[in-house]
């Protein structure tokens, strides 16, 4: 039964994020944003949200491959390669980046939506697309945490992948600013240089904390399950 839940959730997740990417990259058009970034405009790829949607689409594709060729056993005797990739991907990128994007977006929206999603975007940016990008990413990654077990990689590896990803994006938004003269996020305009550095440091630290939150949540849900070491045992939630 849980295997079918996994399969259906993975099909739905991949379909949802593939559609979100298609709509965002090919159908979404915001004229004044094009004018704003007239000197250099990488389109939606300048936003971390889109990077995360790509991560989620790739992750759920990996999940489908694991459903077909790997195993969802709680603790298989011999872990297939695709299962190792799935576990490491979700632990190091899937969960922490999704939670980071969702939590920081809605926190800034609560403080002042003009800092992240100005009202001027409303005629062009559908409300349902906003929730696919900033709400469902948290729902699906937590649901995956609940219904499927994973073996976390070594912390040095998991955190290394996460920090490398976040620093790569940090470099990218500075490249965009250097070429366009415009910060990707309006919140950067209201911060001084020292405050901006502190802001980046706090966000990076918060993202790393989310890695440990994911690890703790996984251990809380599945910790006792690792006693059973049968390769054909599908995961079942503890009661």
What does this structure look like?
There is one protein chain. By secondary structure, this protein is mainly α. The chain has eight helices and no strands.
Task: Write out key terms for the chains shown.
239 residues, mainly alpha, 0% strand
Secondary-structure element pattern, one letter each = HHHHHHHH
Count helical runs.
Answer: 8
Mean pLDDT: 90
Q: Give me the count of strands.
A: 0
What about the largest sheet? none
Alpha-carbon distance between the two ends: 16 Å
Class computed from helices, strands and strand pairing: mainly alpha
Short description:
68% of the residues lie in helices and 0% in strands. It is mainly α and 239 residues long.
What does the secondary structure layout of this molecule look like, with pairings?
Elements: H1 2-27, H2 31-36, H3 48-69, H4 81-112, H5 127-134, H6 136-147, H7 155-180, H8 193-222
Helix pairs in contact: 1-3, 3-4, 4-6, 4-7, 4-8, 7-8
């Amino acid at each position: 039964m849980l295997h079918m839940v996994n399969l259906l959730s993975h099909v739905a997740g991949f379909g949802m994020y593939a559609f979100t990417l298609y709509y965002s990259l090919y159908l979404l058009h915001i004229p004044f944003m094009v004018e704003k970034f007239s000197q250099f405009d990488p389109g939606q790829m300048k936003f971390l949200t889109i990077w995360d949607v790509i991560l989620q689409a790739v992750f759920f594709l990996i999940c489908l491959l694991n459903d077909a060729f790997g195993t969802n056993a709680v603790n298989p005797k011999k872990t297939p390669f695709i299962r190792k990739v799935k576990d490491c991907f979700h632990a190091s990128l899937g969960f922490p980046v999704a939670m980071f994007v969702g939590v920081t977006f809605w926190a800034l929206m609560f403080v002042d939506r003009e800092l992240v999603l100005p009202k001027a975007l409303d005629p062009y940016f559908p409300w349902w697309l906003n929730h696919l990008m900033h709400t469902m990413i948290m729902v699906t990654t937590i649901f995956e945490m609940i219904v499927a077990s994973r073996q976390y990689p070594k912390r040095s590896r998991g955190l290394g992948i996460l920090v490398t990803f976040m620093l790569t994006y940090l470099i990218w938004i500075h490249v965009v600013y250097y070429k366009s003269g415009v910060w990707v996020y309006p919140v950067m305009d209201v911060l001084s240089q020292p405050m901006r550095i502190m802001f980046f440091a706090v966000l990076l630290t918060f993202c790393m904390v989310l890695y440990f939150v994911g690890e703790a949540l996984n251990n809380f849900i599945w910790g006792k399950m690792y006693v059973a070491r049968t390769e054909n045992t599908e995961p079942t939630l503890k009661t």
